[in-house]
Structures are given as C-alpha cells and as structure tokens.
Amino acid sequence: MLTGKQKRFLRSKAHHLDPIFQVGKGGVNENMIKQIEDVLEKRELIKVSVLQNCEDDRYDVADQLSAGADAELVQVIGHTIVLYKESKENKQLVLPS
Predict the structure, then answer these.
(1) pLDDT tens, position by position, 5-38
(2) pTM of this prediction?
(3) What does residue 80 show for φ and ψ, rounded to 5 degrees?
(4) How far apart are CA 73 and CA 56, in angstroms?
(5) HEC profile for the chain?
(6) Which domains are delineated in the chain?
C-alpha cells in the first residue's frame, strides 16, 4: 500500500503525463489489462482516460484496472485514472518513505 506522502509524490509526477489508454463503450477487457501491465513495467506511472460513452462507473473501472494489472490506484480525478506499479527491470521512480 502507498502512504499519503507517496501518493502526493506520484500525483505530482503524473501531472505532466498524458493519458495513454482510453476506456470507452466496451469497458475493461483482458487485452487492455495485458497492455496496461506491459506499459506499467516500462513506465511505472500512467494515466488512463475514461471516455464519456463508457457505461461503467469510473471508480469501478479504476478498481478493475488496478486489480487486473496488480497496480496501485494513485488517484481518480475527473475522468482520468492514475496507476502506479513498481517496475522489476526499469525502475525509474524512487518513492519517499
């Protein structure tokens, strides 16, 4: 689990990122989760945009993505979800303790 301090740190880092994935009418699927896992391994911190035509609640989408990709949910702000997962091979972010 992330502490409040770590989440604030990650939110500040994520502020400058653009969303890489979009969740639309089809909702969350296995293929999307697999791609998000791969990107998290490379980048550690990503944003996902929930489109207005998505039928699922954005908090449900956030829970599905974080659980499916085994990632930490940093924040849901508006229609944007911020996810973090520590990389095994490409560690870039050092979290404050």
Answers:
(1) 999 999 999 999 999 999 999 999 999 999 999 9
(2) 0.93
(3) -120, 135
(4) 17
(5) CCCHHHHHHHHHHHCCCCCCEEECCCCCCHHHHHHHHHHHHHHCEEEEEECCCCCCCHHHHHHHHHHHCCCEEEEEECCEEEEECCCCCCCCCCCCC
(6) 4-84 (3.30.110.60)
